[in-house]
Amino acid sequence: MVQLYNLHPFGSQRVVPCKQEPAHFCCGQDVLFVASAAASCRVEVFAVREQGRCEALGSFATLGPVLRMAHSSAGDYLVTIEEKSKTTFLRAYMNWRCMSAGSSRVCVRMVGHKMEESYSETLKEQMSVVEMPLSDPPLCISCCSVNGDLLVGCKNKLVMFCLKHRVINQNLTVLDFERSLILHIDNLIPAEVAFCARHIAITTELDVLILKLELVQQSADGTQQRAQRVGAPEKAVDGGVKDESPSTHPLELELDEFIICQKPVELLGEESKLCEIPVTLESTELPTEDTKHFQVQYLLFRRFAPDQSPFGFCEETKLHSVQLLPVYQTGISATGNFCEETENKRKLLSLFCFFSLPHVGYLYSIGKLVELISTYQYSEKSEQAVLTPQFLHVITSQNLQCFTVRCSAAAARGEDPYIDTTVKACPPVTLDVCTLRMQLFIGPRAICHFKNHIILLTKADTEDITERRKPTRRMLSRKADGIKSRANSESEPGWNLYIINTVSTIQLYREMVDYSRTYENVKTESCIHLLSEAHLLVRAAIMDPYFLKSDEKEDLLRAFRESCAFLGDCYSRFDTKDYHLALPYYRMSGLSMTEVLKRLVSEGDEIRTYERGFIFYLTHSLNEDSNEELSKESGNKVLQIFYHADPVQLPHIICSPSMRNVCPLTAVKYLQKVEKMMPSVVLTLTKAFLALKMGDLTMYEHEMDSCKETALACGFIGQPRLLQQHKEGIVMPTEFAVHLKEMQPGLLVAATVALHENSKIELEEADTFFKMLCNSSENTIPQLLMDFWEALLVVSSKEYILQKLLLRVTSQYVWRISRKQLPDTKPLKTTEDLINSCSHFGLIVPWVSSIMSVGCSRDKDYHEDISRLQSLLCSQSISIASALPFLEPLTEADHVGLTIRVLCNTHLGKYEEAIDQLLRRCPDALVFYAQHELKGGNQALWWTKLLPELCKRTRLTGNDCPVLISSLKETLSIVEMELELRDFLSLLPEDGTAAFFLPHLLHCSQRKLLT
User: Fold this and answer.
1) Pairing verdict, β 87-94 and 127-131
2) What cellular-component terms does GO give this entry (predicted)?
3) Quick one: DSSP state of residue 67?
4) ∠687-693-697 over CA atoms, to 5°?
5) How would you classify the pairing of strands 127-131 and 106-110?
6) pLDDT the model gives residue 469
């Protein structure tokens, strides 16, 4: 569907003062080349100034009449196909600008010809004509706008010439060509070709083939085949290409009266290989280290049937105007600001291909994804079309038509496939195209475009005008009229070459915006459509490579933001299915919430109904951590809006950082009304929050006492901002959190644990929150944070969180014990509470208590931290290897350090080291340790380690150490129970007196006899 708007994209027009009748023309960077009709064999050059003013720069002769011509901005050269004596020639005119400076010197040379030193110095001041011989006559040409390479279409093949920079000497570099690649394409005679960024588009009368030349790596042995054949399956399938040579089809010779039509087909991407058009690559450049090797990728094949056109006879249905349009990456941010770091970069973002039948045009994206973007239906038969990033200009027999295009929308999605988010958006590619203008001209014949100018050639005579006034006569025979018209045109031609100045983007944008207002209250979709067109118009201008140097740069950026604001207004005010787009468009506009409210909310409007888009925008904006604070009046207006539109959201809206200035009393009144309909714990907590802001402690206590503490803790999950808010990326505690810290720290910790377990706050954010709440320095850990960590150990099930917490609390316990530092507040739980409620705190083993009982009482003030640390190490949860660096400050100098070291060695399986430590430092606890730890596989340590060590130490100390003797007796009693008598005897020291062990031996023997 094509929508028609009567806008004015065309501004002033000027006539190009050509001396001879134009046959062909093309545009350069700032010039217009006009090739005269057959008789003169000249090319006139005109400089195009502001408002389309033309200034003749000069002219130069050609070898013969020009059949085709093209200009390359890269290299600034003109290439032509010329005819002389029924032979066609391919020529490139380099350094042609010196002709306009008055120089008449011309150098003619063959491609690749080595420039002689004798006349190299004069090359700067003379035009150079490079002739490129071909084995077959050239039919069509195209220059790559990216690198200046040249592609020439011949029968059954394409020839690629690479643009080279030949260094003559230090002061002179000359442009030259090198024939580098030939694409042999069987059974294909190209009518037109387009070439850009190694993409090739070829059309015949009814076929379109798009290829891409891909760079390939050279083989490992350094060889590369000179020819590569791609495609061409042996068996023909339905829809395959047939040879256009008459000699191959004898049936066609016999049946001249019939037209054999191929079946229409469209093949995209990988499927296009099935087109059965084989391509063979032949490299013709001299092999060097820098030689590039290519392979062919098929992108698109489409065949049309001649009877598809509703205009004229079958033979009139032919493709025309194939073009490749590059779109470059934009430097625009989501908020419409220009990113300066991209200013010097020009990155190709997307590539588009356009081709047309007489009645319909097709625009394809051939970037990452090959797809049809738009189809253009013409009001009458088209003659030629030209595609620009902003428009499609089409000429028919009577009109110059201007259509909108979707290239900028497709390119934006190519740059960011997820562009339609809460941050940024872009009108859809599927948006209906529209005709902005149908401008009447007499006899349009050819068209081209550059910058903001359209060059239009018209040819008409008196007979043509007379015929248009008699439509009944013209309808009799289209074919006859065509012949008559051409004959008259040759006898009495009337021609004009116009430069039509298109209006500036800003001017047309303003007109589109003004035009959209006529639909505001009548046709919602038309209003959005027109504003979307205006947005895409500006977006396309920003993507233009010349944007960086444009005088309208700031105006375009301003218009971009303004268009986003207008679209945000539409999606906010109108009831549309895409109402959610109000949010990203307003964000891209850079408008603040206050400014949006002024645009949409009327003063004194109490009961107005607001659409979903506006509510969606406000809800998301207020639920985010914004530094913008609404005024008291704006805040109260927002409360009124949500009370009528979505009362459930009121508690969440009130807690927004943007609503800090709202009147608490007004907010409470709204909440009381909502509570009667929909009570909730979050609403109760919000009322308590407001009561604190008003200083009404009675109301606060009433609200807090109305729910159980467990319910209140869970209620904070529904609205975390009651406790903490973000300001400039930092978590800040609220007045509510400060009050809870003083009056109900347990509830505060429980609520924070609930927030963490429900992914409402990260562990590091909670650390910052408690440190700020307790006014602690960066390196100081307040007890309330320790309470949070310990509480989180009780409920958390995530292993990586648990290990992190275990190391944190261990480090803090060690820091306090080693520095004799008391907690800043009383811990919420005792060690016994933690042991009973958390598996990560284990029961303290008896031998640890035994060591501590004989220790000094000076550690009694830090008993809680000591017992918590010992309890942690008595469990199996903590990784001792990871904890060892944190335990370093606790040496073996005291009994606390001894327990820690022995616990660590026991966890690590170093039982012998633990026994040595106890023998040396605290033998009283040795038996307790052995009884608890030396079990199962470690039981042999009783007689292999403990018994020999006790015997040795007892012998050295004698009776002076009763603890050792007692321990030895206990050890013997264990050994005698576990070992046979013979094994027991073998363990006795050889140099000892048996009398000491006789009672034990006698007891063992009696026990054995009894059993």
Assistant:
1) antiparallel
2) BLOC-2 complex; cytoplasm
3) E
4) 70
5) parallel
6) 46
Six-digit token string for 848: 């640890």
Confidence of residue 721 (pLDDT cuts 50, 70, 90): very high
Residues 725 and 869 in one domain: no
- Quote the pLDDT of residue 609: 79
Residue of 497, 447, 459, 500 lying closest to 17 (CA atoms): 497
Work out the angle between the directed axes of helices 524-543 and 407-415 (0-180°, nearest 10): 70
- Which amino acid is located at 957 in the chain? T
Q: How far apart are CA 516 and CA 930, in angstroms?
A: 91
Q: Does residue 363 lie in a domain region?
A: no
For 264-276, write each residue's pLDDT tens digit: 889 998 898 888 8
Of 773, 800, 819, which residue sits at a domain end?
A: 773
The 10s digit of each residue's pLDDT in 141-165 is: 999 988 999 999 999 999 999 998 8
Residues 924 and 943 in one domain: no
CA–CA dist 540, 534 (Å, integer): 10
| Cα–Cα distance, 132 to 152 (Å, whole number) | 10
Residue 407 has pLDDT above 70, yes or no: yes
Q: Does 886 share its domain with 903? A: yes
Tell me if 427 is assigned to some domain.
no
Q: How many domains does the chain have?
A: 4
**Rounded-to-integer distance, Cα 376 and Cα 355, Å:** 10
What beta strand segments (E) does 769-858 contain?
A: none
Pair 636, 765 in one domain: no
Provide the pLDDT for residue 893: 66
Sheet holding 10-15, edge to edge: 10-15, 494-502, 453-460, 444-450
pLDDT of residue 220: 45
Q: Find out whether 774 and 733 touch, Cβ atoms under 8 Å.
A: no
CA dist., res. 492 & res. 148, Å (int): 40
The answer to whether 134 and 152 have CB atoms below 8 angstroms apart is yes
pLDDT at residue 747 tops 50: yes
Q: Report the amino acid identity of residue 7.
A: L
Span 377-401, mean pLDDT?
92
